[in-house]
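ok here's Putative tartrate transporter:
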Amino acid sequence: MLARNLQAPRIQQRCVFVDVFREQARSYNKKYNIMSTAHSTASLRFAEHDRTHRLVTWRLMPLLLVCYLFAHLDRINIGFAKMQMSHDLQFSDTVYGFGAGLFFIAYALFGVPSNMALDRVGPRRWIACLMVVWGLLSTGMLWVESARGFYLLRFLLGVAEAGFFPGILVFLNRWYPARRRAQVTALFAIAVPMAGVLGGPISGAILENFHDVGSLRGWQWMFLIEGAPVVLLGLVVLKYLPDSFESVGWLSTEQKQQLRTQLSNEEQRKTITSFSGILRDPQVWLLVAVYFAVMLAVNTLAFWMPTLIHGAGIGRDSQVGLLSAVPYLAGCFFMLGCGRSSDRHRERRWHLCVPLLMAAAGIAVAGLAPGNALLVMSGLVVAGMGASAALPMFWQLPPAFLSNTTQAAGIAMISSFGSIAAFLAPYLIGWMRDATQSASLALYVLALFIALGGLLVLRTQAAIVNPH
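and the structure:
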């Protein structure tokens, strides 16, 4: 009896312990199920968003990519034409450099008005109009007979192209949230190195094989063959490019709501909501300085790479064209890898700083021994990788500051100031070559400014430019 009385409290304690344990286990299971359900819901939502963005990319990007490829090809083919055109028309390097750069003076002057017109007219009609006009002007380069005509057509071509690239950036920013834009912009901007990969061999082959065919010189055939398709592409854009995701039939109501929600949530974090705010914000002017460096790198290669390769001892036009494709091909892979890495790590600054420093180092190396083909090509490959990756990576930064209402003007303004660098790069090299019979000093100066631009990237605010 006494033993039974002593065991009773122990049994009661055990029962209490078991009840507490069961309650804790039940609470843990409930909490775990809630967390598991939340995780599953988030994963499902992310998968749905991923499917929506893949659909948008497949619908938009092929046409935009081809359009930008021809835009950049029509911009840089003057670099290949120089080898024959300067000889036929007796242009000095200064005349060529000034004419090549004059394109960007017009680009700077008309970038903002053109982008404002895009907002008023709509992306589809405005971009189609620009493409038809610049296709006709690029084709018209075959009739150039004097420096004055050369200057005029290059300026008008800049007017026509001024709204295309910044306009497409604004267009894409209204379809994709920030965390998706690095890969998408890299995919679009891959047209820049691809224009070099395809344009180099094609332009070289046209120059060599069409020379004096049908009373036209090789460079005249090149402008005709590479300019006329743009007019047809403009008509395709007019028919197939949508103005916004709200107007398309290939997105469901739920998918449109996904895009609407993602973009509206981002809009609340923007700090610049007026054009006067653009002009007053020091971060915008910092971006202008960085883009100045990006454009120095891109256009040094675009306009002078064929000449640098030719000066290193490569004589035939077709060989120059093939070798010009190598830096751009390396740039294609590096650009895509850099964009993917940036989105995966949600980091922007170092993914722009490092490519700019690479471009600066490569351009400096190309100037060390102008007659050494191996050294020149090594420098150009490194510079091509850096410049190719820097261009799309830069354009991840402005949307972090600019609201939808100010993106058209803000992006166009930054692009316009960058175009001044695009004018200076070819002109400075041409002037220095005429003055010193070498491009080395000009390449060193350009490399210095590009490196400074790379370091300025680190002055931007990581908390703002890195996607949330």
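+1. The chain is about 85% helix and 0% strand.
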